[in-house]
């Protein structure tokens, strides 16, 4: 079933984790990656606003993927750090901006005509 409103995810950034500090719980390899995923509400597939970020870690050696709720305290710390570096792109808010313009434009045009008369 297709929903014309809801929540979508968009990959924002992937970064390698420090091999000396963080190792995979499963295979103890140091080749870990952390991805930050931005989440936004959409209406008819038009992004309305950002509703935060989530993350996944993946091991390049054994391919184990951990979601945010499965993170170790160490991984969680890395996630919080990386999350602060990544900003949600402006187009996550394009729907709200369009709605804002639709409300502001008539006010500005009526103000303009009131001023020139
Ligand atoms: Zn691994």
List the helices and strands and how they pair.
Elements: E1 5-16, E2 32-43, E3 46-59, E4 65-67, H1 73-85, H2 94-116
The structure holds zinc ion.
| Element string (H = helix, E = strand) | EEEEHH
**What is the number of domains?**
1
What ligands are attached or bound here?
zinc ion
Strand order of the largest sheet: 1-2-3-4
Structural class: alpha+beta
Strand content: 35-45%
The 3D shape can be described as elongated
How many helix segments? 2
Kindly state the number of beta strands. Answer: 4
Report on the biggest sheet.
4 strands, antiparallel
Radius of gyration: 21 Å
Uncertain spans, ≥5 residues at pLDDT below 50? none
Give the oligomer, counting copies of the same chain as homo and different chains as hetero.
single chain
> Helix fraction?
25-40%
* End-to-end separation: 54 Å
Mean pLDDT: 93
Description:
With 117 residues, the chain is an alpha+beta fold. It has one domain. 31% of the residues lie in helices and 35% in strands. It has helices at 73-85, 94-116; strands at residues 5-16, 32-43, 46-59, 65-67. Strands 1-2-3-4 form a 4-stranded antiparallel β-sheet. The longest helix is centred in the C-terminal third of the chain and has 23 residues, at 94-116. It is elongated and about 75 Å long. The model has no long low-confidence stretch (mean pLDDT 93). Bound molecules: zinc ion (ZN). The site of zinc ion (ZN) has 8 residues, from loops. Zinc ion is lined by residues 24, 26-27, 29, 59, 61-62, 64.
